[in-house]
Design brief:
Blueprint: H1 2-20, H2 34-39, H3 48-73, H4 80-91, H5 103-106, H6 126-142
Helix pairs in contact: 1-3
Length: about 150
């Protein structure tokens, strides 16, 4: 989108230069009057006003994208044990059974760009956090994975 904005800006600048170098005595006052610029929209050729509107529209879309980016950057990162549990489930025959193939399967290897709905309640006490984030994963790695519930 930035490249598109750069091109639109260059086109608008070229239109301004073309208008400035026009040899007729009634040169438009576009650089000095928004009214004159807006009124030029009725002419048959592509005008500076329509180009300006195109830039404005693209800039609004760009600004929305930037705000969405910053909102996503604020999103919670998944807990390491949650990602590890997901990886294990994806690999187990009774779980995901390697249903993801190619690049979709590789996306769980790097967790730097993953986000997660933060389902951990703020203000959890230290004992609960210790049990959820340390003790349960440790138990699962040591013994819990050996016990299977038959259905």
């Amino acid at each position: 989108m930035q490249a598109e904005l750069v091109h639109l800006e260059a086109e608008l600048h070229q239109m301004e230069l073309d208008e400035k170098s026009a040899a007729h005595p009634n040169k438009p006052a576009y650089p000095f009057s928004v009214y004159d610029l807006r009124e030029s929209a009725g002419s048959s050729k592509v005008t500076q006003w329509t180009k300006y509107q195109e830039v404005q529209s693209k800039l609004q879309a760009y600004n929305r994208s930037v705000l969405q980016y910053f909102d996503l950057r604020k999103a919670a990162k998944p807990a390491a044990n949650s990602v590890e549990c997901l990886r294990e489930w994806l690999d187990r025959p009774e779980g995901g059974d390697f249903f993801l193939k190619g690049r979709e399967a590789d996306m769980w290897e790097t967790v730097d760009d993953l986000i997660s709905p933060d389902c951990r309640q703020p203000g959890k006490d230290a004992l609960t956090m210790l049990i959820n984030e340390k003790l349960v994963p440790w138990y699962h790695r040591r013994w819990g994975h050996r016990f299977k519930v038959e259905r």
